[in-house]
């Protein structure tokens, strides 16, 4: 008898929880032109300033100067205009055909106090910037957005991101869409500076970062590695194309879709050792970012993440990764976090193309606003594990409240306004009784020092 009631209940709930598709009265916006961001300050002044997290309580400040003899020094302090600390770093530059970059400076500063505003200046002169460090306790809020580019849509996404507070921005690949035209890396740096100089931006590479050319630049990633170095050495990786880092209660793994990921590759071996070091009592949440999605019901880029999924999905499943964010497809899609499983209402996730209570939740968030426009065509019928899909520009926000609960919002760019189109709660896998037992059995291995 009770199972009959459950069956009816589940049928009723299913009716209300049908996969969402965009409302037909919402008009999709076409692509918009590239914005022009000139540098009209003196050549010795910093431009393209951006921040990244580099080890516990440290931040890396990166910037470019057109003049080459500017010192790589950052002066900083907790009071505007008064810098009681300073640090020096290194400088680099690169050539790409006839293009020569400006001086690219990278300076590590710290130790910094958590949840504190710092004021800083780069290279001993020029404008003052300020940033806020991430908190030392929950909650923490991440903005997640991929495939940004530098169009008027990008600007509107950035405006919406800036409209409310957050701690760290996570970008699953495709930054500037320079596509060999190197000055577009500079204009991208200038476009994002007002935001990336205020909060750390943690990125991983997309196909547009490759810029490979046979014989001349076979390895690629020349501009990306010079301009956007991430803390890979700190996480035991040998490549800027994959790394991991921690923020409060959260271990974040940035994978590389465009470097070898096959079983036995350097990236694969690094991932195995990185996953083995996770201590869920310190970081109850584990997030992964990757460019090409492993689950995708959009017709764009169908199957492009499949070989990586086959190589790595089991590894991530066995390590109980909570969420996997991808870009590449210029749209928004969420693969399960609440679906009716036969008769029980379960917080359900995905593994091997099927629902699984202990798998990750997958989200495609390649909707930053690049010049290629939206990916409008979807496979029909929608797979049952795809709960929400919509081709609109926008951005996501993951607010981790505590070790068990996180709130996910997807903001759609409704022209110049931002509209919350999705608002869902996620529970961490360690808080799920059926999965947590498996997690507790896994004792973390620490490096022998
Ligand atoms: C971002 O938001 C802050 C605070 O509201 C505001 O002062 C600043 O001008 C904004 N930045 C941009 C580039 O719009
Ligand atoms: C975690 O946050 C959720 C949502 O705010 C709340 O309902 C829950 O009680 C919190 N749990 C703990 C242990 O604080
Ligand atoms: C979306 O934008 C349109 C046109 O500007 C406006 O009429 C509508 O109210 C907006 N919708 C929301 C939910 O803000
Ligand atoms: Fe892409």
Automatic annotation (TrEMBL):
Residues 1-22 form the signal peptide. GO terms for molecular function: acid phosphatase activity; metal ion binding. Residues 47-133 form the Purple acid phosphatase N-terminal domain. Residues 142-332 form the Calcineurin-like phosphoesterase domain. It comes from the Eukaryota. Its cofactor is Fe cation; Zn(2+). Pfam families: Metallophos (PF00149), Metallophos_C (PF14008), Pur_ac_phosph_N (PF16656). Keywords: Glycoprotein, Hydrolase, Signal, Zinc. It is an enzyme of class 3 (hydrolase). Residues 359-419 form the Purple acid phosphatase C-terminal domain. Its EC number is 3.1.3.2. It catalyses: a phosphate monoester + H2O = an alcohol + phosphate. Belongs to the metallophosphoesterase superfamily. Purple acid phosphatase family. This is Purple acid phosphatase. It comes from Artemisia annua (Sweet wormwood). The lineage of its organism: Eukaryota, Viridiplantae, Streptophyta, Embryophyta, Tracheophyta.
